[in-house]
Structures are given as structure tokens and as C-alpha cells.
Specification:
It is built from nine helices and seven strands; from the N terminus they run H-H-H-E-H-E-H-E-E-H-E-H-E-E-H-H. By secondary structure, the protein is of the alpha/beta class. The chain folds into two domains: about 5-225, 3-Layer(aba) Sandwich (Rossmann fold), CATH 3.40.50; about 235-270, no CATH class. Strands 3-2-1-4-5-7-6 form a seven-stranded mixed beta sheet, sandwiched between helices. Strand 2, helix 5 (about 80-90) and strand 3 form a beta-alpha-beta unit. Helix 3 (about 25-45) packs across helix 4 (about 60-70) and helix 7 (about 165-175) crosses helix 8. The longest helix is centred in the N-terminal third of the chain and has 18 residues, at about 25-45. The protein starts with 9 loop residues before the first helix and ends in a 20-residue tail after the last helix. It is found in: Cytoplasm; Nucleus.
Length: about 270
């Protein structure tokens, strides 16, 4: 099955027909509610105290309804006019804004206590036109998101990465923007139910994130370690390569020749 972001830009893909079909699906409603509740669980917001929350890529307001049920005040932004029109028809309680997250978060610094996003961030990694450079759009999004959150504010975004490179690309942009960053993976062994949650902190929060026993950034850290080892191997000289192999052989209990000034030196060809 094709990924929606590979078919058309979101403002075109989610037209009036797709918006209504998406919102009317009980299966989609259930999944959206489950993922939103999981995002709120990770955020670990102050109980019984309404928080001002930004919903990035709010669509037709399915995740916003959960925010309202949990007692929070929210503002939703989305690039699709038809999705927002469906949200208005459904009379959602949050304020709605037509805006492209790749153009940045258009709010004053320190506006929001927290932010969530459900099934949206991966769209930033696709260049559907020449002016949409993923690296620039990711940087603009995370820089302005950091500004829009209060110090100590938290963000949890469920997303569907196409591959590990996209995870590294997204988390790398978030770190450059100043966030403390991690990725929580639910059901990592399941292809069908596996879910990625990007977890960000803008400074030190009043309440810690609720990560339970989940490991943070495991996939990203492994990827970065692999990349760094490969890069180091490509950069090493012949002499460094020989010394590294000798150390490895010693650890395995094998006898190796002693180092000398001739170790790794190129020999003249014999004619």
C-alpha cells in the first residue's frame, strides 16, 4: 500500500471526499484516540489542571476531541482546508488555524504548555515541489516549535517514518533546534502495530515524561553509532588499520608481530 505522502501533498490528498471518509471511519477514530491518549500519557501533564496545548496537523479534530475530553484547551493547525472544514462541521471545541507546519509555528514565544502531533511529522520529509526542501522545512518547524513552547514545555508526536534514515533526519533537526530528544517505540516487534513517538523537551520540565520501561532513542542511537564507526573506518590510515587489527587479534588470543617503525609502511616494488 502506498504511503499518502508519496501520492500527493497533504492539502491535495486530503480533499473534501478523503476528509469525510477519513473522519467517518470508526477504525480511524479508534486508532487516533488510542494514539492521542498514548501521547498524553507520555507527556505526563499536571493532573486536573487544564493545559494550553497545540495540536500540529490536527486534521478534522479527532485528536482535539480527546484533548477536550481530558480537560485541556487546545489550538489546532493543519494545511488541509477540507480537513479543517470537516472539523468545523463537527463543531470541535478548539480554535483552528489553516497553516503549513513546514512554514513554522506562527505563535508568540512561550504560548503553549505542551504540543502533540498525530500522524503528521513524516510529511515534512517529502519534497513535493522544488521550494519544499525537507532539511529547511524540518529546521523551520522545530525552531519555531521550540520558541512557541514555554520553557520546560514538552512535545510528543506520533509519526510513521519510512525508514531509519528519516528518524535520524527528524531527530537531528530537533536536536539542532535545542530540544532534548528521544524516540519511544511501542510494539517494536510488530509490523502492524508498531508506533513511533517523537519525544521532545524544551528545557527542564516541571514534571518528568512518563516513559515507563520504554527505551528512548534506541533505534536512533544504534543508527548513529553505526554511521560513526563506518565513518571512522573510512578515515583511518593504513597504519591505523593494521594497529586496529592487531589489537583485535590480541583480544582473540592470537600472537601478532610487534610494532616497529616499519609497521604500515609501503614497500618498494621489486623488479
Amino acid at each position: 500500500m502506498s504511503r499518502p505522502e508519496e501520492i500527493a501533498p497533504p492539502e491535495i490528498f486530503y480533499d473534501d471526499r478523503e476528509a469525510k471518509k477519513y473522519t467517518a471511519s470508526t477504525r480511524v477514530q479508534h486508532i487516533q484516540a488510542k494514539m492521542t491518549l498514548r501521547a498524553l500519557e507520555i507527556l505526563n501533564l499536571e493532573p486536573d489542571i487544564p493545559q494550553f496545548v497545540l495540536d500540529v496537523g490536527c486534521g478534522s479534530g479527532l485528536s482535539g476531541e480527546i484533548l477536550s475530553e481530558e480537560g485541556h484547551i487546545w489550538v489546532g493547525m493543519d494545511i488541509s482546508p477540507d480537513m479543517l472544514a470537516t472539523a468545523i462541521d463537527r463543531d470541535v471545541s478548539g480554535d483552528l488555524l489553516l497553516s503549513d507546519m513546514g512554514d513554522g509555528i506562527p505563535f508568540r514565544p512561550g504560548t503553549f504548555d505542551a504540543a502533540i502531533s498525530i500522524s503528521a511529522i513524516q510529511w515534512l520529509c517529502n519534497a513535493d515541489k522544488h521550494s519544499n526542501e525537507p532539511k529547511v522545512r524540518l529546521a523551520r518547524f522545530f525552531n519555531t516549535l521550540y520558541s512557541a513552547l514555554k520553557r520546560g514545555g514538552k512535545f510528543v508526536g506520533q509519526f510513521y517514518p519510512a525508514n531509519e534514515d528519516q528518524i535520524v533526519q527528524i531527530t537531528g533537526a530537533a536536536k539542532v533546534a535545542g530540544f532534548q530528544c528521544g524516540v519511544v517505540i511501542d510494539d517494536p516487534e510488530s509490523k502492524k502495530n508498531k508506533k513511533h513517538y517523537l519525544v521532545l523537551q524544551a528545557g527542564i520540565p516541571d514534571r518528568p515524561l512518563n516513559l515507563g520501561n520504554m527505551s528512548v532513542e534506541s533505534a536512533v542511537q544504534k543508527k548513529e553509532k553505526r554511521l560513526s564507526k563506518k565513518k571512522l573506518k573510512r578515515m583511518e590510515t593504513k597504519k591505523q588499520y593494521i594497529k586496529r587489527k592487531k589489537i583485535l587479534m590480541k583480544r582473540r588470543g592470537k600472537s601478532v608481530a610487534r610494532d616497529s617503525k616499519f609497521t604500515g609502511r609501503s614497500r618498494r616494488p621489486h623488479f
